[in-house]
Predict the structure.
Amino acid sequence: MDRNGTNLRQVSGVAAWDPTWSPDGEQILFASYINDLSQLFIINLDGTGLRQVSDLPDLRGRSDWSPQNLIVTYSGKPWKRELYTMNVDGSALRQISPSGGNSQGPSFSPDGQWVTFTSYFDKYGDIHGCEIYIIRVGGTDLRRLTNNDYCDYQPRWGP
Protein backbone atom coordinates (compact mmCIF):
# COMPACT_ATOMS: atom_id res chain seq x y z
CA MET A 1 0.00 0.00 0.00
CA ASP A 2 0.98 3.61 -0.28
CA ARG A 3 2.29 5.36 2.85
CA ASN A 4 -1.10 6.95 3.46
CA GLY A 5 -2.82 3.52 3.53
CA THR A 6 -4.39 3.70 0.08
CA ASN A 7 -3.76 1.46 -2.92
CA LEU A 8 -3.75 -1.75 -0.87
CA ARG A 9 -2.80 -4.77 -2.99
CA GLN A 10 -1.79 -8.36 -2.42
CA VAL A 11 1.71 -9.15 -3.65
CA SER A 12 1.88 -12.93 -3.32
CA GLY A 13 -0.63 -15.75 -3.46
CA VAL A 14 1.15 -17.75 -0.76
CA ALA A 15 0.95 -17.54 3.02
CA ALA A 16 3.75 -15.25 4.13
CA TRP A 17 5.20 -13.82 7.35
CA ASP A 18 8.12 -11.68 8.55
CA PRO A 19 8.48 -9.55 5.38
CA THR A 20 11.60 -7.45 4.81
CA TRP A 21 12.23 -4.92 2.03
CA SER A 22 15.17 -5.26 -0.33
CA PRO A 23 17.70 -2.41 -0.09
CA ASP A 24 16.35 -0.87 -3.32
CA GLY A 25 12.71 -1.27 -2.23
CA GLU A 26 11.83 -3.31 -5.34
CA GLN A 27 11.50 -6.76 -3.75
CA ILE A 28 10.28 -8.37 -0.54
CA LEU A 29 11.96 -11.19 1.39
CA PHE A 30 9.58 -13.28 3.50
CA ALA A 31 9.07 -16.69 5.06
CA SER A 32 6.52 -19.19 3.79
CA TYR A 33 5.86 -22.94 3.90
CA ILE A 34 6.81 -25.34 1.14
CA ASN A 35 6.35 -29.08 1.63
CA ASP A 36 5.62 -28.46 5.34
CA LEU A 37 8.96 -26.67 5.81
CA SER A 38 9.40 -22.97 6.43
CA GLN A 39 11.79 -21.32 3.95
CA LEU A 40 12.70 -17.83 2.70
CA PHE A 41 11.34 -16.46 -0.57
CA ILE A 42 11.78 -13.28 -2.58
CA ILE A 43 9.11 -11.69 -4.76
CA ASN A 44 9.00 -8.55 -6.89
CA LEU A 45 6.60 -5.82 -5.78
CA ASP A 46 4.33 -6.51 -8.77
CA GLY A 47 3.91 -10.14 -7.65
CA THR A 48 6.21 -11.66 -10.28
CA GLY A 49 9.47 -13.52 -9.83
CA LEU A 50 8.58 -15.58 -6.74
CA ARG A 51 11.58 -17.71 -5.87
CA GLN A 52 12.80 -19.75 -2.91
CA VAL A 53 16.19 -18.60 -1.63
CA SER A 54 16.83 -20.78 1.43
CA ASP A 55 17.12 -24.49 2.05
CA LEU A 56 17.50 -24.82 5.80
CA PRO A 57 16.01 -27.70 7.82
CA ASP A 58 14.45 -25.67 10.65
CA LEU A 59 14.15 -22.10 9.44
CA ARG A 60 12.06 -19.91 11.73
CA GLY A 61 11.40 -16.90 9.52
CA ARG A 62 12.75 -13.70 11.08
CA SER A 63 15.33 -12.40 8.61
CA ASP A 64 16.85 -9.21 7.28
CA TRP A 65 18.40 -7.91 4.06
CA SER A 66 21.63 -5.87 4.15
CA PRO A 67 22.67 -2.95 1.93
CA GLN A 68 25.32 -5.32 0.51
CA ASN A 69 22.56 -7.75 -0.58
CA LEU A 70 23.21 -10.37 2.07
CA ILE A 71 20.42 -12.11 3.94
CA VAL A 72 20.64 -13.04 7.61
CA THR A 73 18.23 -15.52 9.20
CA TYR A 74 18.17 -18.21 11.85
CA SER A 75 17.48 -21.93 11.84
CA GLY A 76 17.56 -24.86 14.23
CA LYS A 77 15.55 -26.90 16.69
CA PRO A 78 14.44 -25.16 19.90
CA TRP A 79 17.45 -24.22 22.06
CA LYS A 80 19.79 -25.11 19.18
CA ARG A 81 19.19 -22.17 16.81
CA GLU A 82 22.01 -20.42 14.95
CA LEU A 83 22.36 -17.37 12.70
CA TYR A 84 23.21 -17.76 9.02
CA THR A 85 24.08 -15.37 6.23
CA MET A 86 23.67 -16.08 2.53
CA ASN A 87 23.61 -14.31 -0.78
CA VAL A 88 20.16 -13.34 -2.09
CA ASP A 89 20.20 -16.39 -4.38
CA GLY A 90 20.77 -18.67 -1.36
CA SER A 91 24.41 -19.37 -2.17
CA ALA A 92 27.35 -18.96 0.23
CA LEU A 93 25.38 -20.10 3.28
CA ARG A 94 27.49 -19.47 6.39
CA GLN A 95 26.84 -19.81 10.13
CA ILE A 96 27.94 -16.59 11.82
CA SER A 97 26.82 -17.14 15.43
CA PRO A 98 28.98 -19.13 17.83
CA SER A 99 27.33 -22.50 18.43
CA GLY A 100 25.40 -23.12 21.59
CA GLY A 101 23.66 -19.82 22.28
CA ASN A 102 20.22 -20.46 20.80
CA SER A 103 20.64 -17.36 18.62
CA GLN A 104 17.63 -15.85 16.85
CA GLY A 105 15.80 -12.75 15.58
CA PRO A 106 18.68 -11.16 13.59
CA SER A 107 18.80 -7.64 12.14
CA PHE A 108 21.54 -5.90 10.13
CA SER A 109 22.98 -2.56 11.21
CA PRO A 110 22.17 0.25 8.75
CA ASP A 111 25.69 -0.02 7.25
CA GLY A 112 25.42 -3.84 6.96
CA GLN A 113 28.60 -4.44 8.97
CA TRP A 114 26.95 -5.81 12.15
CA VAL A 115 24.09 -8.12 13.07
CA THR A 116 22.09 -7.68 16.26
CA PHE A 117 20.17 -10.63 17.67
CA THR A 118 18.82 -12.37 20.75
CA SER A 119 20.76 -15.20 22.37
CA TYR A 120 21.26 -17.09 25.62
CA PHE A 121 25.08 -17.37 25.68
CA ASP A 122 25.35 -16.29 29.31
CA LYS A 123 22.11 -17.82 30.64
CA TYR A 124 21.56 -20.86 28.44
CA GLY A 125 18.40 -22.78 29.25
CA ASP A 126 16.83 -19.94 31.27
CA ILE A 127 13.64 -18.91 29.41
CA HIS A 128 14.07 -15.38 30.80
CA GLY A 129 17.80 -15.32 30.05
CA CYS A 130 17.96 -14.03 26.49
CA GLU A 131 20.01 -10.89 25.96
CA ILE A 132 20.76 -8.74 22.93
CA TYR A 133 24.12 -9.21 21.24
CA ILE A 134 25.90 -7.85 18.19
CA ILE A 135 28.41 -9.61 15.98
CA ARG A 136 30.29 -8.54 12.89
CA VAL A 137 28.75 -9.87 9.69
CA GLY A 138 31.77 -12.15 9.25
CA GLY A 139 31.08 -13.87 12.58
CA THR A 140 33.68 -12.12 14.77
CA ASP A 141 33.67 -9.65 17.66
CA LEU A 142 30.63 -10.93 19.60
CA ARG A 143 29.40 -8.36 22.16
CA ARG A 144 26.55 -8.49 24.66
CA LEU A 145 24.55 -5.24 24.80
CA THR A 146 22.00 -5.97 27.54
CA ASN A 147 21.99 -7.63 30.96
CA ASN A 148 18.50 -7.92 32.44
CA ASP A 149 16.38 -10.28 34.53
CA TYR A 150 13.94 -10.61 31.65
CA CYS A 151 14.24 -11.66 28.03
CA ASP A 152 15.39 -8.95 25.62
CA TYR A 153 13.88 -10.26 22.42
CA GLN A 154 14.05 -9.58 18.67
CA PRO A 155 16.02 -6.34 18.33
CA ARG A 156 15.76 -4.31 15.13
CA TRP A 157 18.15 -1.66 13.94
CA GLY A 158 16.79 1.26 12.01
CA PRO A 159 18.43 3.83 9.79
